[in-house]
């Protein structure tokens, strides 16, 4: 999550819905794991379940140990945070475990992970009432055994800390592992949530800090300040945090306050050498522009080079040449000045093909990888196209990026589940010249978590399914639909249930006799259809227009 190129206020806003429950299917997955290739998926677990928005952490003391966390549906629990761990470099994965809600009836979202220097693993995530907004908070947990067990949750920041703001969305977490005077400090940033009951402007990016390994967290504070306010126009000014090689804390956030800060949108860089006690600001960019499809996942990322304390990189989605592309914007003097933005994807410019879902990481020696979701193979130019995960590398001793290469094969067909909240980010780690990329896609019929291990030197690649399930195929047509949905004649079901995207039962029937039903009465939006008979349950998403 600038000085030269024209930039979009819409893109700069990095709008992100926190209605994560918008993506779940219907019953419990039993296990995970299996090694697959681009040509074949070897499914071991059974069940039908949504698995989305993954985050990956790799143990700095033992790179064969890694943990993936994500949000997924759990029977009777709505959406929960799930984790799985590997002790063999990602070849095999443990049966996933899920974390109980802090308040019964809540839903969870937005998990992030980070290891400390001693090998302890930290987690932050949101747990909230997605219906009435009666409660909501960011929580912190710790694992001292590489994700096998987790501590009880510690409240980091609550919606009661920011009345009428609901400042618990997208809790990105970074840890100072530099060994310097602030080493061990945990930084968690948040923003106002996009909910049916909107936050009261002005809108702010938030920061809270722990200096005791997550036992306690300081009272949350605004990252923005006079002259550098995010303003009243960008409803979700998402800050993207990073810690430099010298222990300096950074957070980039968007702003638009024309009455006091000029007519253009800005990117402000907050920075602190005192573990957040004192925060200074830099106007990193100001300008205007436009973005493409509103469904695109445009969250930006700030990262710091562990081999060069002055080197920062900012990755974002930007429509400068007629369609959404991936750009990198870099500073080599701690954010004081920034190079001209560089387009990363190498498909033809202005071809209408849209890229999004960007994520990047530095290796410890300064090598850089950038990954994104690409639509160049699709027949159309909109969001609803088959996708692939692409990447480029820039080695420490080079000024140029490598040619792009595929992390995944083609992922088709598109499903409506990708259009709502969820699947809004992927994650990548670059360790000892090996890329570990993790993302959610629908290649097997529902949204699941995949991990690719790519050896950058040899160009060899292996794809693993972290959260898999055997999915009976239910094809709904037409989809999207205005009034009727149909499914295959060979499927015999006794009953059906239509669920809204937050888990509410909209309609059910226990004497189904046809292979079609009317949905004309439904409001426009995304839904799930569940068909059942005595032997099986089939699930598919559809869109009412």
Key descriptive features of the protein:
globular, 2% helix, five-stranded antiparallel beta sheet, 545 residues, 2 helices, mainly beta, 35 strands
Question: If you had to describe this structure to a student in words, what would you say it looks like?
Answer:
- With 545 residues, this protein is mainly β.
- The protein has helices spanning 9-13, 258-261; strands at 34-36, 51-58, 66-74, 78-86, 97-98, 107-115, 121-128, 136-143, 154-158, 169-175, 186-191, 206-210, 221-222, 240-243, 249-255, 265-272, 280-287, 301-304, 312-318, 325-331, 342-343, 356-362, 368-374, 388-394, 405-406, 427-431, 434-441, 448-455, 460-467, 484-486, 495-500, 505-509, 516-518, 525-532, 537-544.
- β16 and β17 (280-287) form a beta hairpin.
- It is globular.
- The two termini are 32 Å apart.
- Residues 1-47 and 468-472 have low confidence and may be disordered.
